[in-house]
Amino acid sequence: MTAKERRDMLRASSADRQRAADVLGTALREGRLDAAEYDNRSRSVQDAKSVGELNALLADLPSQLGVRDWADQLRVRQGDREQVNRWLADAVTDGRLTEAEHERRLAGVASAGTYAELKPLVDGVPGPPETPRADLFVSAADRQAVLDRLAAALTDGLLSADEHRDRRADVGRAERYRQLDELAIDLGERANPAERARAVRRLDHAHAAGQLDAAEHAKRVAAATAATRDRDLAKLLTDLTPTPGSRATANSLLALKRRHRLTDAERELAAQELQHALDDGRLTLDEYDERVTKAYAAGTAGALRPLLDDLVVPDEQPPAGTAPRRPAKGRPAGLAVAVVIVVVLAVIGAVIGLTDEDPGTGDAAAGPSLGVRWIAAFDRPPGAKGLGTWFTDGAVIRARDDRVVAYDLADGHVEWTFQVPADNELCTMSRAVDGDVGIVGYGPEYRCTTIVGLDLRTGQPLWQRPRPGGGIDYRYAHEVALARDTAVIREPTGFVAVDARSDAQRWRLPVAKGCLPYSVTAAGDVAALLTACPDRTMTLALVDAASGKERWRAPLRMSQDDDEDGAYKATVVLSLDPVVVRTSDAGGAFIAFDEQGKRRATIAQQQPDWDLALDVFPTNWVARPWYPVVVVGDVLVAPTRKPGDNEDKGVAGFSLTDGRRLWHTDPGFVSSLGQAGDDVVAVAYVDYELQLLALSTQDGTVRARVKPGENALTLGGVDVEVQRVGDRYVVVSPAGDSVPPVTVIGPR
Hints:
By secondary structure, the protein is of the alpha+beta class. The chain is built from 17 helices and 36 strands. The strands form 8 sheets. The chain has a 9-stranded antiparallel β-sheet, with no helix packed on it. Strands 24, 25, 26, 27 and 28 form a 5-stranded antiparallel β-sheet that branches. A 4-stranded antiparallel β-sheet has the order 4-5-6-7, with no helix packed on it. The chain is globular, with a radius of gyration of 31 Å. The termini are far apart. Mean pLDDT is 79; it is low at 243-247, 314-367, 471-475 and 708-717.
């Protein structure tokens, strides 16, 4: 006889019966049992003689109030039944379900007793827990979006008429996202005319630099012009890195990939090194003649190596026991953390190393080698300041007070420049971009009197509109936002939404009398509107970006410094999935909301042993504020500081479901945090040197690090922003006249 069988045979006590009655009462309150079923089970509880009989009466009921488990055997909670009805209503509205299918499922929901009976009724419908996106039914809007992409691909010459017709039919037959995504993948891999033109420019540069002779150049240009896929273009360029014209040393020549095609400047550099060896007596005249002839004839870096291997002296190491001087403590008045990033360069083309670490042990192992792929030219004229950054799959776009510049992520080539009109300054940017559209604003003395929709493929304005009343006093609030194809703009009396590509108005929402629109943030298909009132109350409203229809609203309070200029702006929406707001009310806190607008977690900035993310608002990124607080899924990661200290020396992760501290680590002086896929990338001072660390958001372990090697060149700046885009780390500085404005690090 098993232990369970022995327990079931035990006689039931009065306390056992009372516990069973409590479980039944909980089930009645949650709607898992109706009144008749409750009465029947209650009588059976009083008549039960053994523990086993009681267990049988409670087998399909949870023992506590509020259990959200959708275990098959449990009885359905009434609140979950109502939620399913809402999910089904949204599904038919979105075109995922037909009216007939909706009615059939509604009838099934009403009669479902257990979650096993309920689950098939929400198959393919957004909302249920742990439902993979691939298994969801396609909405009418998303189906139309793919059709629109097909139409654009036909217009752009990416698809033939026959291909377009066949794929339209496939889209019409697709029921679930896994089918629709498969149809869209090939579109993303197709090379568009702009990419082909960029590849041709790169080949032209290589020919001019001597990397390609005339015949090879003509052959590759013809192939690039005919290429239909990105991977075909990439094959034509892989042996041409680094960018022609980049500075190099003899050491960096030996660090090049063997198949790298040499530029004339690189051949000349090799010849100069051979001349030095001849002058020093390390080569005879005959040896010099033989090697220099081969150097000028060399086509790839591999041919240079045997000519230089026994001549190039390794860079001198620092004396044992010495270390770089640590930055002075403290920071300038009114400025956030002063950042000094040490990036490994041998002048500008050298190599830095990446080590992947075992998350379980932290022991370093040899990882993939990274190098400085390119560095943007210094800002000119001196004094220009970076105000915000956009990251796209193919470009880094950095805004200054006088212009917006797009750099090709692959090689740093300047793709386009948008010049702000004279006597105006750029004053705002949307936090996100939508494909090939971004929103900026400019005006005199940083007051945003004109809003512009930018075509991110060309840098040309799609539209511009005057902004009544110009800027508003909340300096670090968001003036504009972008959600898919809708731009939302803050105006003196409310919020207005327009089509992001045509400026056609979609909706307008005024604020209550006496109140002011405070800030707008958008992502996906929603926008978060913050409204401030004279009694220091604030309202957070989440609305549908396309229609302006309100989904929910929640009250907040403002602190006294909320309407003052400066780096410690009090209220900001940090994330919309999930919704996370930072407010300085009651000493400062991060508040997470659920899908119905209920507060589900509050994380105080004043923790028992340290303070959390005191500098939420770096001073220099004015147009598109950058926040060193990262939200990844249901985890918030932020820098920490001990009381009385003036530096952030730790990083902590918190659960956004219940506010629990998940982990805390002390890598050293932490100057920046950014997102790196499912991880967080930190710039931290570790063992007397600054490093880039990729931290796990789940437990804070170091998953990878980029650290200095030989002949490190220091790049300094204030409030640098660091992000990982694909397989590359991008470091952007607002002080682009004293340090490179953009540095990109990636695989060699």
